[in-house]
Amino acid sequence: MLAALTASALLLPGLARAQEERWGVDYGFTLYSEDDLDSDKLQAGSPERYEIETHQLRMRAPLGGRIDVGLDLVHETMSGATPWFVEPDANGEPVQVMTGASVEDQRSDVLLRGTYLFDESRTSLLGGYSKEDDYQATNFGFSAEHDFNEKNTTFSWGAGLSLDEIDPTPTATNLNPSQEDKRSLSIFAGISQVINRSSIVQSTFTYQNGSGFLSDPYKLVSVGGVNLPDSRPDSRNQFSWLTRYRRHFSSVNGALHADYRLYVDDWDVTSHTVELAWYQMLWDALAVIPSVRYYTQSQAEFYGPYFVTSPGGEFTSDYRLSPYGALSWKLRAETRLSDWPFRMAWKVGVSWERYQSSGDLAIRDVEIENPGLVSFNVLMFNLSARF
Amino acid sequence: MRWAWILGLSAAFVAGCATGVRPWERDQLSRPEMAWEVDALEAAHRSHIHFSKEGSLPGGEAGGGGCGCN
């Protein structure tokens, strides 16, 4: 979350920045709701999966023309059941055992950011803290952007560190879980380039090294009929290459957004993500934005829905590390009002997204689909004011 | 080797675009719907959902960690 909040502020193209000279307050409310698990995939536990309500508040203030400070606050409440472990049914088909529906948690997140604006570059420092009942993370980051070539080219780079502590809640199968640590170090570098009067492209590499406790303390794995704790390597090297293209079409008053991300890691996961969005402006006050996103990933080398014999010291049945594909559709509408009411510029947005994942949607054939794959709806409302 | 190839292509691309678009020719590029992320809050939250529910790194940013998402 912190990473995403940071990036959105730092990687603006250096062009759409006119409004940033004003004070700003943004509020967002999101309702995230996962589909119930199909009864034919459920072995035991509750079929009612996660629901999350999220409140986001972002405040930004320009100080003295050269300094920009921002504060982001997030609070969310989660409830519902989550996948616990997978086991074979009488026919050897994998079926999901869920937790009870009583899992409840809250997360609060605060991020403070300061940016200094030079004539042809910008430098930001940030620090953040995120707290859940059983998890806390402290983040630090640095990033910079430099404009070249009469601001037709922008180079951006940065680094971040997150120090996380996991203090698992005791469960029936683990009465006295130990406290664990995790550390993530990431660096990125990217370039954005104006192609012509109506199009711009950006390409960014990100590398992240995670070390420490990278397993899920609440998941079990069926190994030879015995349930053992989820056990993953204690380091992970991840690479992501994101390329984004924007093109404006004056004749129809719309804009095309096309994004592609290639991801690889040393757990053997490779993924491809393609997202296309069309921004149709209507009378410059209303925007209607349909979009589609496709995602496909391969499995981690130590993943299996369940294991008949022990594969060694590392194993997981987490659907996030299984082979699958996902397709999502989103429709967003935004309206903009300038200087009314209260002589402020307003933006009100509503969006709805449907996300579905399955083995059949993967780019390569999936022999055995993980029964815990998730599908969900996201409804979001947000309001922005600039003054 | 692959990285060298990618860097070379990127450099060639930038050089090809070096003719430049003048500041007064940027009316379309500076429109709000041309930003990398048109709504920062929505983009941040979507990125968090995908990071929590999929096996990949968001990309295009520094940081990471920050949730014990189930």
Secondary-structure blueprint of this entry?
The complex is a heterodimer of chains A (387) and B (70).
Chain A: H1 2-10, E1 24-34, E2 42-44, E3 51-63, E4 67-79, E5 83-88, E6 94-98, E7 104-117, E8 121-132, E9 135-148, E10 153-166, E11 180-196, E12 199-212, E13 220-223, E14 226-229, E15 235-249, E16 254-265, E17 270-282, E18 286-297, E19 324-337, E20 345-358, E21 376-386
Parallel strand pairs in A: 2-6
Antiparallel strand pairs in A: 1-3, 1-21, 3-4, 4-7, 5-6, 7-8, 8-9, 9-10, 10-11, 11-12, 12-15, 13-14, 15-16, 16-17, 17-18, 18-19, 19-20, 20-21
Chain B: H1 2-16, H2 40-53
Rg of chain A over CA atoms, rounded to whole Å, is 23 Å
**Per DSSP, what share of the residues of chain B sits in E-state strands of 2 or more residues?**
under 5%
Characterize the main sheet of chain B: none
How helix-rich are the residues of chain B, as a percent range?
40-55%
Q: Strand-residue fraction of chain A?
A: over 45%
Give the helix tally of chain B.
2
How does the overall form of chain A come out from the CA principal axes?
Answer: globular
First CA to last CA of chain B: what distance? 39 Å
Interface with most residues = A-B, 116 and 52 residues
The tally of beta strands of chain B, per DSSP, is: 0
Order of helices and strands of chain B: HH
Largest sheet of chain A: 16 strands, antiparallel, barrel
Count of helix runs of chain A? 1
By DSSP, the count of extended strands of chain A is 21
Radius of gyration of chain B: 18 Å
